[in-house]
Amino acid sequence: MDDVRPVCARFHLAIELIGARWTGAILRGMFAGHRQFSQLRASVPGISDAMLTQRLRTLETEGLVSREVTASSPVRVEYALTEKGRALEPVLEAVVAWSHRWVPVPGEAAPEE
Predict the structure, then answer these.
(1) Residue 58 in contact with residue 20, Cβ under 8 Å?
(2) What residues does each domain of the chain span?
(3) Contacts for 77-83 with beta carbons within 8 Å, 24 or more apart?
(4) What pLDDT score does 27 carry?
(5) What is the pTM of this model?
(6) Are 26 and 46 within 8 A, CB to CB?
(7) Whole-number pLDDT of residue 66
(8) pLDDT reported for residue 91
(9) Residue 108's pLDDT is what?
(10) Which of these, 54, 92, 47, lies nearest to 38 by C-alpha position?
(11) Residue 14 in 3-state DSSP?
(12) Is the previous residue joined to 74 through a cis bond, with omega within 30 degrees of 0?
């Protein structure tokens, strides 16, 4: 244990970004092909419109999601994963696999080791 290194600042920033409440669920909805606000809201039960808007703005600011507005009647807004956002899919799928093995759901039997 002599080779203990401080955790990289990038690691902390990445964990804070993808670990923010609802963010993983929103990204998983986008991995499943949901592009419109209403589709994303339906794919993330319990999220409010305000929180979904806030998270999508953060994801856009961080370069994980792009937002496209189509001037139609009514105006159409679609969100798409950028290359940076798509690169998170195997990461989040690994977290899903890990959670199925190790994280018990309240009221259910613990996962088998």
Answers:
(1) yes
(2) 23-102
(3) 77/36, 77/37, 78/35, 78/36, 79/30, 79/35, 79/36, 79/37, 79/40, 80/30, 80/35, 81/27, 81/30, 81/31
(4) 98
(5) 0.86
(6) no
(7) 99
(8) 97
(9) 80
(10) 47
(11) helix
(12) yes
